[in-house]
Amino acid sequence: MRETSAHWWSDALNDPWRDPTTSAVLTPPRVAPAPMPEPPPGPDRGRSWLPAVLVGVVSALVAGMLGGALGVRFGGAAQQEQSPIGSGLHASAPAPDSLAAVVQMVLPSVVTIRITVDGGTALGSGFIVSPEGHVITNDHVVSGGSGKATVIFEDGDTAQAELVGTDPESDVAVLKILQHPGLTVARLGNSDTVVAGDQVVAIGSPLALPGTVTAGIVSAVDRPIATGSVRGETRYYAAIQTDAAVNHGNSGGPLVDVAGQVIGINAVIKSMADDEHSAGNIGLAFAIPINHAQRVASEIIATGRAKRTVIGAELEEVSRGSISGVRLRDVISSGPAAAAGLRQGDLVISFNHRPLSEPNDLIALVRKTAPGEVVSVTYKRGSTSHDVDVTLVADAD
């Protein structure tokens, strides 16, 4: 329903200032005739013609305003009738920079994963990372299964897959699709360039709803998260935090940037619920950075297991005093920390310029870093601060 305008010019036919029998006509302005010679003024002439002039000027102004208003009112209505809204002319494809285009690019590479576990069927998400059919997902999606899984594609087609290997501590697992031609491989981005405020899209199968797309922003990077697993291991994430809606079933699915590149694996959510089965989205979700996951997955494919990055020190569970940092309980001789000059009792304040407040912070950041990479460490010995470079290594186990 269209609301009637309340402006004074909205109903010109009932305007009390207008003769209803006279139609409005637009004409060119008249050319004023040449002025007649002015007779000599009489004693009261100035006062006799001035009111007439003022009345003429005011009348001209009112007539001009009324004519302009009527032109806008009825001329605009005629123009709208020629170009009505909803004419049926739509773009043939989404704009290249739209989220719809991003989703169309990524969705064919995302799969739903069903795996039989004790007591029922586990459901999660994953994405294809090689033409050979390798799929990255979370370890906790396939944990407790038989090593066989069913993957469901965007178009509803299904295929069988087998488990290649897992790394419980980093929560990364790799499946391989056995037979399915024409696979779409996801494009992997660079999670080291991700910053807070970047726009992102999460794709997966939350609550068994395949192909679900949610959007948000990166809330933080390198957020240290430690969670337990059913097998007793502790999983460490130096995670990408996002407010995109993530729920049960999103695990293992991609977190994607606006270029359509995977920058993380959706893995963990925080919730106000008392148990994980009733937990739901409250805008606090965490993804494993793709650089970390890609390295782990490549090692699993090549050797069946992943290398664990270490700094060569044992950490105290609680730091002494009120100063933030992580205290070294022991330093392994000939390890990376010892080689850099760190000693037992030193208080590590930052790792690659990231401040530390508890041991899990340091462990998560070390695990995220590739073996052989040189990192900057700031520590305190007594009241003196020191900056050193530490070359991390892979665990010998």
TrEMBL record:
Region Disordered, as annotated, extends over 1-45
Q: Which InterPro entries match?
A: PDZ, PDZ_sf, Peptidase_S1_PA, Peptidase_S1_PA_chymotrypsin, Peptidase_S1C
What transmembrane ranges does the database entry give? Answer: 49-72
EC numbers for this chain: 3.4.21.107
Q: Which Gene3D superfamilies match?
A: 2.30.42.10, Trypsin-like serine proteases
Which residues fall in a compositionally biased region of kind Pro residues?
30-43
Q: Which GO terms describe its biological process?
A: proteolysis
Got a GO cellular component term for this one? periplasmic space
Residue ranges of coiled coil:
none
Source organism superkingdom: Bacteria
Q: Which UniProt keywords apply?
A: Hydrolase, Membrane, Periplasm, Protease, Stress response, Transmembrane, Transmembrane helix
Subcellular location(s): the record lists: Periplasm
Q: Which family does it belong to?
A: Belongs to the peptidase S1C family.
This chain belongs to the protein called Probable periplasmic serine endoprotease DegP-like
Q: Which organism is it from?
A: Rhizocola hellebori
* Lineage per the UniProt record: Bacteria, Bacillati, Actinomycetota, Actinomycetes, Micromonosporales
